[in-house]
Fold these 2 entries.
Entry 1:
Amino acid sequence: MAGSAGRGRPKGSTNRRTVALMALADEGESPCTFALRIMRDDTQEVDARLQAARIAAPLLHAKPQPQPRHVTFALPESIEGAGGLLSVHAGVLRAVADGGLSLEEARELSVILETHRRMIETETLENRIAELERKQQ
């Protein structure tokens, strides 16, 4: 636009409100105290006060963590082999399909089952190696 050169603040410079907010922040207040002061200041614009409230809210009112649910289920007689683990895992899948377990709960149980499977695998490999070494002597 031909006549607008030199008017207003230079491109990229900080506006007055931001300069004022930065000056307040430089006084050494905590972010929460700073946001609360802005939020309660009737001379500030409504948008600035609302933004300050959004900033202060999580600092003052932490979102409560959900309490973990305790899940109980029957285990087969033996879970020391693949068949027993397969049976347990099928039960977990059935519980998800029936709505008794959430996907997150099933995922956590699957991690436990996978850890158990790896422990069985490790023990089996150790036994096989020991047997081979015994035969070579």
Entry 2:
Amino acid sequence: MQREVAVISGPTGSGETTITNEVIARYPKSVARLVTATTRPPRDEEKDGKDYYFFSKEDFIQATLDGRIPEYTYTKNRDTYYGSFLPDLEKKLGNGLVVLVNADIVGARYYKERFSAVTIFVVPENLTALERRIRERSPSLSEKEIAHRKENAAAEIEKEKSFYDHVVVNADGKLDKAVDQIVEILNKEGYTLR
């Protein structure tokens, strides 16, 4: 079976986005990342259509109603929606690409059901490493927000890890090893990487 969509998930700070970008860098002619939709404002260097599709809340909700965003999650503490932008997915699949999706459990279930996607869960080697990554990535976060994100990540690992087809540890300083493992999984599971 030729597979087209794979999900690479993980709690905040696990490195799932970095790993996804590394896989794409190795196979730029055959692999692309799904650009998802969000209602959060763009960060400094982010560009619409490249990093995310940035929507107002009203436009995002309308896109869910008209089917352009078939699955989504609302993050209450950030008052933000995130979801899959179907036109981006259809364009990439139409170009014959393997599409890697960084999604939460809601998205992972959707892609597994709808596209027979293989799901991979990336975890840090421990919560201390996770906290350090959160601090490095977002130095302006309050201690309360860091504690909240760490707590959410621990709960996500505990509750959701068993759903995924594969679990890959992304240890500090060993990114290449995690990327190699994911490439090996994708090859074994019937994805064409070239």
